[in-house]
Design a protein that fits this description.
alpha+beta, single chain, 194 residues, OB fold (Dihydrolipoamide Acetyltransferase, E2P), 16 strands, elongated, four-stranded antiparallel beta sheet
Length: 194
Amino acid sequence: MSNLVIVESPSKASTVKGYLGPNYKVIASVGHVRDLPKSTLSVDVENGFEAHYINIRGKGDLIKELKKEAKAAAGGAALPQTVEVQVNGVSYKVTVGEAGSMPAASAAPAAAAAGTGEGKELAAPLEGKFYLVKAQGEPAVKVGDVVKAGQTVCYIEAMKTFNAIAAECDGVITEICAENGQVVEYGQPLFYIA
C-alpha cells in the first residue's frame, strides 16, 4: 500500500512530491473535478446540510484515473462512499457518488436568462395522463433545471403504460405547462426549453 496525495496544480504536484519523497505518489487534478449543481439548492437543509455534487463536464476520464489510483493506494480496498469531516469542531458528512443523479451543467448562457414560456416547445407525442415522475421519491425536473437532449423529463400514462418523454434539445426548462395527473392531448405543450 502506497501513499497518495492529490493536488490541483501540476507544478504543485512536483513540488509536493519533492518534499514528501519516494513513498508518496502525487497526482494533479488540474483544477476541480466536482461542483455543486447550479440547477438545485445542492445542499439538503433537512438532512444535516448534506451537499450533493456533480462531476464537472470533461473530467470523467480524470476522475476514473484518480479513483483507480486511490484504490491502488488503498491496497484494492473499496473506497468510502461517505466520509465524515470535522471543521472547527463541527462534523459534516460528505457523500461521494456518481454523476447522473443530478442534471449536468450545460453551456447555455442565453438559456439561463430566458423568461417563462420562452424557448422550444416540447409537445405531448400522445394523449394520456401527465406525470413528472413515474415513482414516488424520484427527483422531478422543475423550472430552471438544465436538461440534455434525450433526458427523460416526464411520463405520459396511456393504457396503463408509463411512456417516458425525453427533452428534444439541450437547455433550461423555462415553463412546465401541465400539472401532475392532468390529462393531456396529443400536441399539447408540456414544457418550454430554452
